[in-house]
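notes to self, project folder thing:

trying the whole complex as one job this time. last attempt i did each chain seperately and stitching them together was a nightmare. four parts in total, labels are on each line so i dont mix them up again. if this works i'll redo the older ones the same way
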Amino acid sequence: MNYEQDTNQKNSSTIQRQVNQAKILRTLRTLQPIARVDLARETGLSKATVSSIVDELVLESLVEEIGATTSRGGRRRILLRVRPGREGRCAIGFELSRNNLIGILVDLEGRVIATHRDLLPAGYLNPASLVELIQQQVQHLITPQDSTNRGLVGVGLGIPGLVDPNTGRVLVAVQFGWSDIPIKEMLEIQLKVPVKVMNNVKAAALGEVIYSNHSMEHSPNPRLYLSLGEGIGSALIIEGKLLSGVSHTAGEFGHITVAPNGPLCTCGNMGCLEAVAGLPALVSRYLELSRLEEPSRLTITPGEFPYLTSARFLEAVSAGDSLADRVVAEAADQIAIALAGVINFTNPELVILGGPLSQVGAALLNPITQALRRRALPLPLSQVRLITASLGSNAAGLGLGATIISQLSEVVLSR
Amino acid sequence: MNYEQDTNQKNSSTIQRQVNQAKILRTLRTLQPIARVDLARETGLSKATVSSIVDELVLESLVEEIGATTSRGGRRRILLRVRPGREGRCAIGFELSRNNLIGILVDLEGRVIATHRDLLPAGYLNPASLVELIQQQVQHLITPQDSTNRGLVGVGLGIPGLVDPNTGRVLVAVQFGWSDIPIKEMLEIQLKVPVKVMNNVKAAALGEVIYSNHSMEHSPNPRLYLSLGEGIGSALIIEGKLLSGVSHTAGEFGHITVAPNGPLCTCGNMGCLEAVAGLPALVSRYLELSRLEEPSRLTITPGEFPYLTSARFLEAVSAGDSLADRVVAEAADQIAIALAGVINFTNPELVILGGPLSQVGAALLNPITQALRRRALPLPLSQVRLITASLGSNAAGLGLGATIISQLSEVVLSR
DNA sequence: ATACTAAGTTTAGGTACTGAACAAACTTCC
DNA sequence: GGAAGTTTGTTCAGTACCTAAACTTAGTAT
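result (full assembly):
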């Protein structure tokens, strides 16, 4: 079940054991603490098989015994659980952003054990240097004794750019000037553990979605993550998997048309959501309206106007600036138009609002909720839970870590 | 592999054989005619295993030998293929509409062997009578000798209404006054073969998507089917599976907002696509504009105006009525607004235009294509193939039949 | 102490896969 | 035409993994 074994594994066709190992691990994780008998009953496997597989899992540091229950006649049941903390196995999720590399070490239960942040060196970032940097962080994060990475289940990496999650190639990353970099392959050679690479916003989406649930079990129903910031993106998760699309660009939420004759967007279309509700648009709108408003009622002084940044604008909203609040409410209406369409179309069970704009909380959530009531169909709307993202800058790392961990209890049929 | 065997099958855990049977069947179907050696090479299984599984498949009438090739030194290879026609196994797809029950018998290659259509009796249709009617059609369609349905792999049923495809329950079918009918269960008891029940538009979508491909192999990428008629619906197929959603209402394309302050829709929202581009809206628009137009240039005479039906309107478009054409072109613009959003969001490889309105062909397709060029993002747009539906009233039946057949070469891990 | 009960382990038997040897059915070449 | 060579498909011994049933372990009940 670890990487070395996978590579010199028999002949890819002994699916049985993998399926059953995964089944037991999955059951164990959702019902823990649990005894072998109950695992047998839950999974439909025989007690003998469960014993045999549990033995293996204990050997691999994935599972541990935690004493016995009191009995009501008969031998006491020995409770098992997924082995938590540093003593068990773990995974690391990395997020690469413009200036930082954040690494988050999670245990088998998806809990954070340690984090590490490196500032990126100025100037061009070489793919090889990134690999080097990640290798160093891995050494920092896992226990120093374990230099073989044997405790490490795998590593995930989120990158701002277009990634093919299947091959793990970075197709384009404008910020770093990369194109067609086989980063997954490079990392696997260096780290000797399986690596998963994906877009950082999608990784954050996975994180928020998985951790919204209090269990790492995935729902089969669609769940949507919305990232509201300078740009507006999203990720749709169906049956626990990210929708990627033919060219891996699925999730473009910001270019849904919400005002057919509205302002020109950078993409060439008129009235894209991003053009009216992206942060730059909100700042412009604020400046436009502030001319009509009495300065005394504003949190932002007219002197700041020429230098008004998105961050400062968001502060004003949080500080209760009524004009900023109005601008956000207007944007919420526009967001709701697109969101209502997507809710009707995908019928999700969960929508998570993420990105900088989402941090203003109720100032955004309330008007969106209201507008959705007018715009969305009653049945799908009644099924959807609308919440705000809660993991902050840890989201991507956690999503990647949890994804790696989850793969232990999934079997991918190779086709 | 047939239904009786499935029920008293060992103990649900002999997954190995099922996986490998499915793998061989899948490979065989895409690469046929093919010999055992090549199957072994393609699937990675040993020659011994392939021989053993092929023997089983031949016994089950799923596969047949079709003579040998000429050799270039060495024993000649015996070519195998999926057994076509009545001699092989087959499936039946039924579509229930307001007045008709259409049954389509397809062979293992997805080709139509026979069709049958019954007019429904007037008045309330009892679920039990439907089961009875389907049972009769099954008897008509399969060879009379085979009264045990042994040749029948399974049956699919498409119903206009809200269906839970997992349980096969009809949640609501307004046209028939049904609610919460376990139609799948009822049919399985009667027919003694596996039954799949789903919404008829989604079944049609599956049909069009599967048959657009010239092979029954499913692409992993998203594909979209649009049904343009009185109402506007859609179905999104991802990894060969229909997106259903929490409450099984996914695909509501008609209630995407395309004109935020537009006309009131039946759903309560303003400016839904359906309210501006559904057939009733087009007819109204035609009547509205016809007052300004010179009657001589119209195909429809003013005398018809009070009785103008959607069907007549569509005839006028096909006849080249310039005003009707203009109305369709306007609608195409609105459709393109919603479609561009969905293309950006889902990044599909295929969009199929279906439903009555799609039958006007280029009058609709051209303006949509043009508008998409302005509205959709270049990268996703460049990947999408936009075509018109081609199966007509057979679509749903074919989709269901093909779905049943496809299940032979798929393994669903039970969780 | 003895009987009962339930959890977990051991064992014998069955299924399904694989590699290697073998049989079958060709072509080639002298 | 027969020996040699080639390739396909089958048979067989060995292995992995599952199950049911018997057994061991470790408790409670009386």
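what i see at first glance: The first strand of chain B starts at residue 34 and ends at 35.
need to look closer tmrw
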